[in-house]
User: Fold this.
Amino acid sequence: MNQKGSLIILSGFSGAGKGTVVKKLVKDYGYLISVSATTRKPREGEVDGVSYFFKTVDEFEHLIEEDGFIEYAQYVGNYYGTPKKYVEDQLEAGKNVILEIEVQGALNVKKQYPDALMIFITAPSVEELKARLEGRGTESQEVIEERMKRASEEVEEMTQYEYIVVNDIVEQCAADINSIVIAKHCELNQKLDFIEETRKGFANI
Amino acid sequence: MNQKGSLIILSGFSGAGKGTVVKKLVKDYGYLISVSATTRKPREGEVDGVSYFFKTVDEFEHLIEEDGFIEYAQYVGNYYGTPKKYVEDQLEAGKNVILEIEVQGALNVKKQYPDALMIFITAPSVEELKARLEGRGTESQEVIEERMKRASEEVEEMTQYEYIVVNDIVEQCAADINSIVIAKHCELNQKLDFIEETRKGFANI
Assistant:
């Protein structure tokens, strides 16, 4: 069976360890991170097609007209977007593709891709979340408090997601997400062709 | 988090290898098979509470009156049933409990336990199913044909299930079922208490 990949919409609290979980999914499970397109200039070391797809404003706007983006936005004078073709080619090739976005983008993507999995990653507790933000040691107290405030608002967005995955141990969290993807592949509505084949198989025997 | 177990309703074609998959789930994943109650006499080697819960007709009928069964039926003059208390105690203790039943019983159980997972196990193809039935070498051609006929009817019942799991390699099939159970535990409606706790956590910080 040549199975299509799953589109995984991933959101989560800042400090929940989303980045580490994504790295684990890429390294241990062969997942792909969706590569964004942008009109901003490449920084040193950034590789076209890996870090970003670098586009001119003309190219980007042409793609917008052609409905070439799953979602896009303007930020500090530059365009950023998720190219439809890249994601769909990868899904067609059977790759599971991760899209790291916030709730509004997530809901937009879900409308276009009803089979996409909306997953929210959280720390085991609020205390742990705060401890992780503080533990990074790179953020000022002010930034930490701002992130905690943002997180306390995001709680209200959690109920928009289909799955809540607790990131206690990163290996476990990545395995849980992979289980969600496997379960999705076993859902009845993914197996209708298979059932039809089976039905024909019995008719021919 | 003290997590409740999942109730797994398992059906599948005769010859799909359901028995082997169940054994794997018990041995490698610690799942429990629901123990039935019956009024038939114990056979040699059968142990009360392991093979069956052996009951007198009076005891059984008393349990029926008390709504003590998830489902029950009469067969060749004896009662057979799934005791509610046993299953619920195990789920409460966090055990995943397997219930091997046919479609009508499955739908009845699902009505009582909406969180139960309805899983149908199938062979990779009709040819493979037939080959497995023939390969057993224990069944007459007549029995094999009867089973294939029954299976061809069961195809129409497959769409009543939530998940279709293909048993190509038994280890993979058991792992897929375990993934479905893990994914269920991550579903939003299983995490509402956790979200409420998180909300309170932010209020208290």
Observations:
- The mean pLDDT of chain B is 92.
- The radius of gyration of chain B is 19 Å.
- Residues 61 and 79 of chain B are 9 Å apart (CA to CA).
- Strands of chain B lie at 7-12, 32-33, 37-38, 53-54, 69-75, 78-83, 97-100, 117-122, 163-166.
